[in-house]
Amino acid sequence: MAPRQQEHEGSPLLEKDAKHLELGRQTSSFVGDVYAPTTSAPSWIRSAAEKSLVVVLATAAVLAGRGGFLYFQEKTGAGLVPTGPYRLVEAQEGEDFFSYYEFLDGPDSIGSAGHNVYVSRSKAEKLGIAGVVSEEDPRTGEDDVPFVHMSSAPTKEGPRDSVRLEGKRRFDRGLFILDVRHMPDGCGVWPAFWMTDEAAWPRNGEVDVLEVFVLALGTDKGVNGQTVAKTALHTSDKCDMYAHVPEYAKTGDWEWVTGIPDTFTGEPDFRTAKAADNCWVMAQHQWANEGCTAVHDRNDTLGAPVNDNGGGVYALEWDPENRHIRSWVFSPDVPQNLQDAIDTAGSKDASEMVMPDPDTWGIPYAYFAIGEGTGCSKDHFKNMRIVFNLAFCGNVSGNRFSGECPALAKKFNVTDRKGNHDPVLTCNAYVESDPAALEEAYWKIKGVYVYEREFEMPAKKEDLAEQEA
């Protein structure tokens, strides 16, 4: 999904932000309003003050419990690394779901150019396109289960009123689980569940969990009724998966690209096909902003097939210390450990919670190598937040509308000033007709669950050698 604010690498805005962040690092040792002495003070004053600060914060952390102590150790760089078991950070369910997000109020970004306008929470609730409804669970048959609903509404002006949620919390790692019973589906529809940092895009990366960007070789239908799950990463330069991802690490494949225009003639080159395994948004021999895209090996992992199964679970593990990003789709069957983690995430008794263990879920369909010793350093992904949105037509679904929904394109055909068929305007005309098919364009979410690994002392080299042996 194109970010709301697209600033290119090396732009003055990013340079300004970088200087601001660096100044913050120099003047404060902690995140928040805790005072830390600057380097301009005499060394003996700094030493005494730092020791006093450590004592105070350590005492406060102990009083706050184990979680607070881990947070203290993380921020002070006490030699710990996030490689321990997972612990729950957020359980976004029911009436509390929307409290984790801000509603974007305004038009879609220039980069996406969707035929829709995002509205505030109050307007979305008034229109009935955002809310929580208790009803029967289509997967389990259980009654009075709270589900989050998000959809859209037609307008007299043309573009549909829709919803875009932007997470309040920022992440540098984590395990992100989406338990969904229905996802938007159909021609002209462009839904997305993704993570990014718009203000520093693409420097801080982007991860698309449920979305497709470009035309490529394959059998999937694309955004307009897609049935094949894909995970895509979008980054700055020097983030390449080539020769760093063994075949046995994943069940899926890379998306394959062809038809890139020749540099000199401009003619599409269909004789050459290349794996989309370079995450840089300006990588050569890939479409602009394509990134590296992993494709599921099954054609029933997204859209209508998943909806017909009563939904599914999408899990993405962003684990820079273990040097990977992995992605799974489970529908209709969900691994017992994962299901137990979801079912107990809302428990008030921590002892009843089951923590997820991705190593028991089977081989992921998508695997990206990041971190030390790979072709993509871990600093390509940071400070990202979760985003949900529902767009229509635009630069992706609109441009692909005629090829993927030919009957509708013929019926709603719109031409440009030269008399040529315009796929985007045609898509817009279809959406403005408010067809009954758009009733399927809605989210029905059981919950979103975010976990992070606990901090622990790093393993000794001899212990690692024994494990590898």
Key structural traits:
469 residues; eight-stranded antiparallel sheet; alpha+beta
Task: Give a verbal description of the structure.
The protein is of the alpha+beta class and 469 residues long. Helix content is 22%, strand content 27%. Helix 2 packs antiparallel against helix 3 (66-76). It is globular and about 70 Å long.
Count of separate DSSP helical elements: 11
> What is the global morphology?
globular
Separation of the first and last Cα atoms: 42 Å
| Uncertain runs | 5-76, 212-224
Strand content: 25-35%
Major beta-sheet overview: 8 strands, antiparallel
Question: What is the number of E strands?
Answer: 21
Q: Over all CA atoms, what is the radius of gyration? A: 24 Å
- The assembly state of the depicted protein chains is single chain
Mean pLDDT: 84
- What is the helix content? 10-25%
Structural class category:
alpha+beta
What topology emerges from the helices and strands here?
Blueprint: H1 12-27, H2 43-64, H3 66-76, E1 81-93, E2 101-103, E3 106-107, E4 116-118, H4 121-127, E5 130-135, E6 145-150, E7 160-162, E8 164-167, E9 174-182, E10 189-196, E11 206-208, E12 230-234, E13 253-254, E14 256-261, E15 268-275, E16 292-295, H5 304-308, E17 312-319, E18 324-330, H6 336-344, E19 366-369, E20 385-392, H7 394-398, H8 401-404, H9 406-411, H10 423-432, E21 443-456, H11 461-468
Parallel strand pairs: 4-7
Antiparallel strand pairs: 1-21, 2-8, 3-4, 5-6, 6-21, 8-20, 9-17, 9-21, 10-11, 10-20, 11-12, 12-16, 13-16, 14-15, 17-18, 18-19
Helix pairs in contact: 2-3
